[in-house]
Amino acid sequence: MSPPENGWENRLAQAIVSMVIPRLYDAHRMPRATSAAVATLRRRTHVDRIVGLVLSDRHEAQWQFLVDLVEEGLDLDDIFLHVMAPTIRQIGVLWEEDRLSFVDVTTKSAHLQQMMRRMASELAVTSQRSTRRLLLAPVPGEQHTFGLFVLAEMFLRAGWATLVEPAATWEELHNDLATQQFDAIGLSVGSERMLEGMAGSVASLRAAALSPDLRVFLGGWAFQATQEPLEGYGADLVETDALAAIAKADMLCPRRDCALSSYQSIPEGLGIDSG
Q: Residue limits of the B12-binding domain (predicted)?
Protein backbone atom coordinates (compact mmCIF):
# COMPACT_ATOMS: atom_id res chain seq x y z
CA MET A 1 0.00 0.00 0.00
CA SER A 2 1.06 3.65 -0.30
CA PRO A 3 2.94 5.44 2.47
CA PRO A 4 0.62 6.86 5.13
CA GLU A 5 1.47 10.45 4.31
CA ASN A 6 -0.02 10.17 0.84
CA GLY A 7 -3.58 10.39 2.14
CA TRP A 8 -3.11 13.42 4.37
CA GLU A 9 -1.05 15.27 1.75
CA ASN A 10 -3.84 14.81 -0.73
CA ARG A 11 -6.44 16.00 1.79
CA LEU A 12 -4.25 18.99 2.66
CA ALA A 13 -4.04 19.99 -1.01
CA GLN A 14 -7.83 19.71 -1.27
CA ALA A 15 -8.31 21.86 1.83
CA ILE A 16 -5.98 24.56 0.49
CA VAL A 17 -7.85 24.73 -2.80
CA SER A 18 -11.38 24.57 -1.38
CA MET A 19 -11.05 26.50 1.90
CA VAL A 20 -7.83 28.43 2.45
CA ILE A 21 -7.55 30.18 -0.92
CA PRO A 22 -11.15 31.50 -0.94
CA ARG A 23 -10.61 32.90 2.59
CA LEU A 24 -7.41 34.63 1.50
CA TYR A 25 -9.32 36.28 -1.34
CA ASP A 26 -11.92 37.50 1.16
CA ALA A 27 -9.30 38.69 3.65
CA HIS A 28 -7.62 40.85 1.02
CA ARG A 29 -10.91 41.94 -0.53
CA MET A 30 -9.99 40.37 -3.85
CA PRO A 31 -12.53 38.93 -6.29
CA ARG A 32 -13.34 35.37 -5.34
CA ALA A 33 -11.85 32.86 -7.76
CA THR A 34 -14.32 31.47 -10.22
CA SER A 35 -15.13 27.78 -10.14
CA ALA A 36 -13.16 27.37 -13.38
CA ALA A 37 -10.09 28.99 -11.82
CA VAL A 38 -10.36 26.80 -8.75
CA ALA A 39 -10.68 23.72 -10.97
CA THR A 40 -7.58 24.79 -12.91
CA LEU A 41 -5.63 25.29 -9.70
CA ARG A 42 -6.76 21.90 -8.42
CA ARG A 43 -5.58 20.25 -11.64
CA ARG A 44 -2.20 21.94 -11.40
CA THR A 45 -1.91 20.71 -7.82
CA HIS A 46 -2.69 17.18 -8.98
CA VAL A 47 -0.12 17.39 -11.78
CA ASP A 48 2.57 18.80 -9.49
CA ARG A 49 1.90 16.05 -6.98
CA ILE A 50 2.15 13.17 -9.42
CA VAL A 51 5.18 14.66 -11.20
CA GLY A 52 6.92 14.69 -7.82
CA LEU A 53 5.97 11.06 -7.25
CA VAL A 54 7.17 10.10 -10.73
CA LEU A 55 10.54 11.78 -10.20
CA SER A 56 10.98 10.01 -6.87
CA ASP A 57 9.98 6.64 -8.41
CA ARG A 58 7.39 6.01 -5.69
CA HIS A 59 5.36 3.67 -7.84
CA GLU A 60 2.81 2.49 -5.32
CA ALA A 61 2.25 6.05 -4.11
CA GLN A 62 1.61 7.10 -7.73
CA TRP A 63 -1.01 4.42 -8.13
CA GLN A 64 -2.69 5.22 -4.81
CA PHE A 65 -2.83 8.90 -5.72
CA LEU A 66 -4.72 8.07 -8.92
CA VAL A 67 -7.06 5.78 -6.99
CA ASP A 68 -7.71 8.66 -4.59
CA LEU A 69 -8.64 10.92 -7.50
CA VAL A 70 -11.18 8.36 -8.68
CA GLU A 71 -12.58 8.08 -5.17
CA GLU A 72 -12.92 11.88 -5.09
CA GLY A 73 -15.24 11.56 -8.07
CA LEU A 74 -12.95 12.56 -10.93
CA ASP A 75 -14.01 11.03 -14.22
CA LEU A 76 -11.45 8.76 -15.86
CA ASP A 77 -11.46 11.04 -18.92
CA ASP A 78 -10.58 14.02 -16.73
CA ILE A 79 -7.73 12.12 -15.09
CA PHE A 80 -6.30 11.07 -18.46
CA LEU A 81 -6.76 14.48 -20.08
CA HIS A 82 -6.04 16.93 -17.26
CA VAL A 83 -3.65 14.99 -15.02
CA MET A 84 -1.82 12.30 -16.98
CA ALA A 85 -1.40 14.18 -20.27
CA PRO A 86 0.23 17.27 -18.66
CA THR A 87 2.37 14.97 -16.51
CA ILE A 88 3.73 13.16 -19.56
CA ARG A 89 4.35 16.51 -21.23
CA GLN A 90 6.21 17.78 -18.15
CA ILE A 91 8.46 14.73 -18.19
CA GLY A 92 9.23 15.57 -21.82
CA VAL A 93 10.07 19.17 -20.89
CA LEU A 94 12.51 17.96 -18.24
CA TRP A 95 14.23 15.88 -20.93
CA GLU A 96 14.40 18.86 -23.30
CA GLU A 97 16.03 20.87 -20.49
CA ASP A 98 18.58 18.06 -19.89
CA ARG A 99 17.26 17.50 -16.38
CA LEU A 100 16.35 13.90 -17.20
CA SER A 101 18.19 11.43 -19.40
CA PHE A 102 16.52 9.75 -22.36
CA VAL A 103 16.56 6.49 -20.40
CA ASP A 104 14.84 8.20 -17.44
CA VAL A 105 12.19 9.71 -19.70
CA THR A 106 11.49 6.42 -21.44
CA THR A 107 11.32 4.46 -18.19
CA LYS A 108 9.15 6.95 -16.32
CA SER A 109 6.83 7.57 -19.27
CA ALA A 110 6.43 3.84 -19.78
CA HIS A 111 5.48 3.39 -16.14
CA LEU A 112 2.90 6.17 -16.40
CA GLN A 113 1.41 4.43 -19.40
CA GLN A 114 1.33 1.14 -17.47
CA MET A 115 -0.66 2.84 -14.73
CA MET A 116 -3.04 4.34 -17.29
CA ARG A 117 -3.51 0.89 -18.75
CA ARG A 118 -4.16 -0.52 -15.29
CA MET A 119 -6.67 2.25 -14.59
CA ALA A 120 -8.51 1.49 -17.82
CA SER A 121 -8.81 -2.17 -16.88
CA GLU A 122 -9.44 -1.93 -13.13
CA LEU A 123 -11.03 1.45 -12.48
CA ALA A 124 -12.77 2.39 -15.71
CA VAL A 125 -16.05 0.91 -14.53
CA THR A 126 -16.46 4.06 -12.43
CA SER A 127 -16.37 6.32 -15.49
CA GLN A 128 -19.75 7.55 -16.65
CA ARG A 129 -18.76 8.75 -20.13
CA SER A 130 -18.06 6.81 -23.27
CA THR A 131 -14.47 7.40 -24.33
CA ARG A 132 -12.62 6.27 -27.41
CA ARG A 133 -9.71 4.02 -26.50
CA LEU A 134 -6.52 3.96 -28.55
CA LEU A 135 -3.54 1.63 -28.22
CA LEU A 136 -0.28 3.12 -29.56
CA ALA A 137 2.89 1.14 -30.18
CA PRO A 138 5.97 1.11 -32.36
CA VAL A 139 6.10 -1.80 -34.77
CA PRO A 140 7.84 -4.59 -32.81
CA GLY A 141 11.55 -4.26 -33.41
CA GLU A 142 11.60 -0.45 -33.52
CA GLN A 143 13.81 1.28 -30.93
CA HIS A 144 12.62 4.90 -31.01
CA THR A 145 9.53 5.41 -28.86
CA PHE A 146 9.67 8.88 -27.30
CA GLY A 147 7.67 10.43 -30.13
CA LEU A 148 4.84 8.05 -29.32
CA PHE A 149 4.50 9.54 -25.85
CA VAL A 150 4.17 13.01 -27.36
CA LEU A 151 1.59 11.68 -29.82
CA ALA A 152 -0.22 9.97 -26.94
CA GLU A 153 -0.48 13.29 -25.12
CA MET A 154 -1.94 14.92 -28.23
CA PHE A 155 -4.55 12.19 -28.57
CA LEU A 156 -5.33 12.53 -24.86
CA ARG A 157 -6.00 16.23 -25.35
CA ALA A 158 -8.28 15.34 -28.26
CA GLY A 159 -10.40 13.19 -25.95
CA TRP A 160 -8.94 9.72 -26.52
CA ALA A 161 -8.02 7.41 -23.65
CA THR A 162 -4.59 6.64 -25.05
CA LEU A 163 -2.31 3.87 -23.86
CA VAL A 164 1.24 3.23 -25.09
CA GLU A 165 3.05 -0.10 -25.34
CA PRO A 166 6.63 1.11 -25.95
CA ALA A 167 8.29 -2.29 -26.39
CA ALA A 168 5.57 -4.84 -27.08
CA THR A 169 5.95 -7.93 -29.21
CA TRP A 170 3.34 -8.90 -31.78
CA GLU A 171 2.11 -11.53 -29.35
CA GLU A 172 1.67 -8.94 -26.61
CA LEU A 173 -0.18 -6.56 -28.93
CA HIS A 174 -2.50 -9.40 -29.96
CA ASN A 175 -3.10 -10.19 -26.29
CA ASP A 176 -3.87 -6.53 -25.50
CA LEU A 177 -6.45 -6.39 -28.27
CA ALA A 178 -7.93 -9.77 -27.37
CA THR A 179 -8.37 -9.03 -23.65
CA GLN A 180 -9.29 -5.32 -23.66
CA GLN A 181 -11.71 -3.24 -25.68
CA PHE A 182 -9.98 -0.75 -27.95
CA ASP A 183 -11.55 1.40 -30.64
CA ALA A 184 -8.27 1.71 -32.52
CA ILE A 185 -4.60 0.75 -32.59
CA GLY A 186 -1.91 3.03 -33.99
CA LEU A 187 1.45 1.66 -35.12
CA SER A 188 4.54 3.79 -35.74
CA VAL A 189 6.86 2.47 -38.46
CA GLY A 190 10.27 4.11 -38.57
CA SER A 191 12.05 1.97 -41.14
CA GLU A 192 11.06 0.89 -44.62
CA ARG A 193 12.25 -2.63 -43.93
CA MET A 194 9.47 -2.94 -41.35
CA LEU A 195 6.85 -2.42 -44.05
CA GLU A 196 7.36 -5.88 -45.51
CA GLY A 197 4.44 -8.05 -44.45
CA MET A 198 2.62 -5.09 -42.88
CA ALA A 199 -0.67 -5.90 -44.60
CA GLY A 200 -0.61 -9.36 -43.05
CA SER A 201 0.22 -7.93 -39.63
CA VAL A 202 -2.70 -5.48 -39.86
CA ALA A 203 -5.08 -8.31 -40.78
CA SER A 204 -3.75 -10.38 -37.88
CA LEU A 205 -4.38 -7.55 -35.41
CA ARG A 206 -7.97 -7.20 -36.62
CA ALA A 207 -8.53 -10.95 -36.28
CA ALA A 208 -7.23 -10.93 -32.70
CA ALA A 209 -9.25 -7.91 -31.53
CA LEU A 210 -12.08 -8.20 -29.04
CA SER A 211 -13.77 -5.30 -30.82
CA PRO A 212 -15.20 -6.28 -34.22
CA ASP A 213 -14.90 -2.66 -35.40
CA LEU A 214 -11.24 -2.09 -34.56
CA ARG A 215 -9.64 0.74 -36.56
CA VAL A 216 -5.98 0.46 -37.53
CA PHE A 217 -3.84 3.61 -37.91
CA LEU A 218 -0.32 3.59 -39.38
CA GLY A 219 2.26 6.37 -39.33
CA GLY A 220 5.96 7.11 -39.09
CA TRP A 221 8.93 8.03 -41.21
CA ALA A 222 8.76 4.85 -43.28
CA PHE A 223 5.62 6.09 -45.01
CA GLN A 224 7.36 9.31 -46.02
CA ALA A 225 10.26 7.39 -47.53
CA THR A 226 8.46 4.56 -49.30
CA GLN A 227 7.45 4.75 -52.94
CA GLU A 228 4.73 2.16 -52.44
CA PRO A 229 1.02 3.17 -52.47
CA LEU A 230 -0.14 3.93 -48.96
CA GLU A 231 -3.43 2.14 -49.57
CA GLY A 232 -1.78 -1.26 -49.79
CA TYR A 233 -1.42 -2.03 -46.10
CA GLY A 234 -5.01 -2.73 -45.13
CA ALA A 235 -5.16 0.11 -42.58
CA ASP A 236 -8.05 2.52 -42.04
CA LEU A 237 -5.64 5.46 -41.90
CA VAL A 238 -2.04 6.05 -42.99
CA GLU A 239 -0.77 9.48 -41.96
CA THR A 240 2.62 11.00 -41.09
CA ASP A 241 1.39 14.35 -39.71
CA ALA A 242 0.25 14.11 -36.10
CA LEU A 243 -2.43 16.83 -36.24
CA ALA A 244 -3.84 15.46 -39.48
CA ALA A 245 -3.84 11.96 -38.00
CA ILE A 246 -5.87 13.10 -34.98
CA ALA A 247 -8.37 14.98 -37.14
CA LYS A 248 -8.85 11.98 -39.43
CA ALA A 249 -9.06 9.60 -36.47
CA ASP A 250 -11.82 11.76 -35.00
CA MET A 251 -13.76 11.44 -38.24
CA LEU A 252 -13.25 7.69 -38.39
CA CYS A 253 -14.41 7.24 -34.80
CA PRO A 254 -16.46 10.18 -33.51
CA ARG A 255 -17.27 9.92 -29.82
CA ARG A 256 -20.97 9.19 -30.31
CA ASP A 257 -20.22 6.33 -32.74
CA CYS A 258 -17.46 4.62 -30.81
CA ALA A 259 -17.50 0.88 -30.60
CA LEU A 260 -17.63 1.18 -26.82
CA SER A 261 -20.50 2.48 -24.75
CA SER A 262 -18.72 1.53 -21.54
CA TYR A 263 -15.43 0.02 -20.47
CA GLN A 264 -14.97 -3.68 -19.99
CA SER A 265 -12.98 -4.76 -16.97
CA ILE A 266 -10.07 -7.04 -17.70
CA PRO A 267 -10.23 -10.46 -16.01
CA GLU A 268 -8.51 -10.77 -12.65
CA GLY A 269 -4.85 -11.67 -12.95
CA LEU A 270 -4.24 -9.76 -16.19
CA GLY A 271 -3.75 -6.33 -14.61
CA ILE A 272 -0.47 -4.46 -14.66
CA ASP A 273 1.63 -4.49 -11.50
CA SER A 274 2.25 -0.93 -10.36
CA GLY A 275 5.44 -1.77 -8.56
A: 131-261
